[in-house]
């Protein structure tokens, strides 16, 4: 029988849930939102839950989406593409054509693997991006997020080892944590995952007789750090996967949003055993909830079984409308417009950071994607500061520690630049800079005679 | 570390996977489909899978959807509503209005709980159906199927006890089986689940110190049996849930498709701790992949966490188009038309069964829904017969044993009547009757002198 979930605690705490508890509590309190942290509510069913529920906590993504809905808050917290510039008449036209031509099928159940014409379209896109696959090498998922959930379900047993980047995408950590892994987090630098440290960790694990199940990486314009994994390290990782027998999961959500420079070959193009995740969320629309996963056929079959159990198939309606849009309209031109828009906003944020953030603060300079990762001086705590930032300055961000498993990220923050216009970005960073400078002055006056021990920094 | 999944087998075999193996193998072979059963393929990653993967098998739903796509096969196998009669221009109009009014939001991420106006619409529908809830008592899921997956994840640890009907919905058995439960299956009669047998089993389990996690029922026009749980037994089940401390999951996928007679009050109207699953798949469109789950707040929060990890949110596009359709068009009138259509088809199937099935065969007489459950005489095996039915007679159905956990259902079959027009139903049942009569003649000539021991029948 399942134990009492709420009284139980894994030795290695995945996802740093006490941090999420703090963050969500803080935001909920400030915003007058309904409290979502279960521990505060009497729950008569705790004896019925599976122990894994103890690891299934609300991420701050949820709370932060609530913040973004408030018009008086400038939010750098979400990971939202800007859908406001999208030519909506194209979707209307695509829907009309689909419904008149194949309305009954668009309203019906479809195959678990996905709508075949859409899969064919993905095959041709992937070829352009350097990955040669056939139509049977991939299935359609509900965004890349659903593939993460499936991979957790398929590979992770309680206490299995998985490898992630530090920091990493909070939604991936959340999807994996439901299956109770032990997480080994490998730090990033400006060239992506530190493969030298990875090699050391793998050797240590091998000595202990432990084989990691998989390594999860976001190689392009990483969420949250904004860095891109260089080709040499990509090759190194595929070599290590052969030596130590783990699977590589390559989450390429942001690869098409490159503002300058040359594409780096995907890991999947170097090794056909790599599991590759793609999504329409950043090149078309997150509201369609469509992504895809490419995997070796044996693994893909497990993913299909998981997809059947999860929701039978992706929506026929949104798949067919998306296929019609991709094949009948110049989606590449729309992506080019987005890139121009986001580049301008990134530049606005970089300029504002230089102007308004205090000396000693550092930040990444991403060549694409949606995020800048900033680190505060003197070990200032971004999590503790968030309450004041929202209340006093009406500006929101993701505290860095939410992107870490266990310790780390306390001084850092994820700043999204894709959603707000340049003026708003400048205003928001100005306000945030003032909060930071105020905290810094307070901090320095408190500790000028008794400097605290160095805190656990982000990198 | 996770063991070798492929070499491992639970003592109580969930979902009767060897049956699914047989069924899918048989269908795939006959139809020249790609073989989907993993055991036939060399899989270098078996040492990396979590043990639960050993229970994640393809259901024949997948194979059967492939069958339905072949124009020369009359398929009674799917569970498809008939979307061919749907006024598609209403969807075009709804999409146009949504995109012009709120295009950016329809293409954007949305809240995990679902689009609020759609939730409000569900609240008002539920009130009409006898269930009083507020907007915070439910969330939107990707069809009712996704709620089943979440409930498995939240409640089931390996070897936990769950209670289902025998026979039950194969997709539910599949969703639960991924979490490795021990399944107690309670037989049905024409009044639904046999609560006398349920009470006995619960007492036996209590003596063994085992508490079931939940009881899963499809009370209206059950899939696959077509029977409706009578009110007296509904009250009995809610009483037993209080005594023995398990949760009730009420899957009401078909309740709105009543052809005659009066609605029976939902279990959720008798007990507010019941988890209720609804879906737009049968009253609007499965292609939108939208359903909802009503649960006590503490449990609903766990479901929200699971939804975040699974796919962040349901699609904004399909939610908003569905909401526009439900609020701007006379969806009740469309459902009435469906009911008239399905009633006529059920009658056609009942008439054809009387005419073409051999003496000794029996079948249910559903007052609604999509399915008739037929049982063959003399212990004829519907699973063994399926190959011939498809090859010789070009007619498909779901063999009864696929709807059972472990043994049972060998002589039975699920026949869908909602998808084919009456003439096709008559023709299909005629062909199927001929196959059965042929098998019966063969069987009787073989065993007239040495009758076999009675086989494990369905009911």
A few lines on this structure:
The first copy, chain A, is of the alpha/beta class. Chain A has helices at residues 17-31, 60-68, 88-106, 116-128, 143-155, 170-177, 195-207, 231-244, 267-270, 297-311, 316-328, 331-356, 382-393, 422-447; strands at 74-75, 138-141, 161-166, 182-189, 192-193, 214-217, 247-251, 275-279, 291-294, 362-363, 371-375, 395-396, 398-399, 412-416. The longest helix of chain A is centred in the C-terminal third of the chain and has 26 residues, at 331-356.
> What is the terminal separation of chain A in angstroms?
42 Å
The oligomeric state is homodimer
| Shape annotation of chain A | globular
Low-confidence segments of chain A: 1-40, 454-459
Helix content of chain A: 40-55%
What is the makeup of the main sheet of chain A? 8 strands, mixed
Mean pLDDT across the residues of chain A is 87
Provide the β-strand percentage band of chain A. 5-15%
Number of helices of chain A: 14
| H/E element order of chain A | HHEHHEHEHEEHEHEHEEHHHEEHEEEH
Strand order of the largest sheet of chain A: 2-9-8-7-6-3-4-5
Highlighted features:
alpha/beta; 459 residues; 8-stranded mixed β-sheet; globular; disordered N terminus; disordered C terminus; 14 helices; 4-stranded antiparallel β-sheet; homodimer
Would you spell out the secondary-structure blueprint of this structure?
Two copies of one chain form a homodimer.
Chain A: H1 17-31, H2 60-68, E1 74-75, H3 88-106, H4 116-128, E2 138-141, H5 143-155, E3 161-166, H6 170-177, E4 182-189, E5 192-193, H7 195-207, E6 214-217, H8 231-244, E7 247-251, H9 267-270, E8 275-279, E9 291-294, H10 297-311, H11 316-328, H12 331-356, E10 362-363, E11 371-375, H13 382-393, E12 395-396, E13 398-399, E14 412-416, H14 422-447
Parallel strand pairs in A: 1-12, 3-4, 3-6, 6-7, 7-8
Antiparallel strand pairs in A: 2-9, 4-5, 8-9, 10-11, 11-14, 13-14
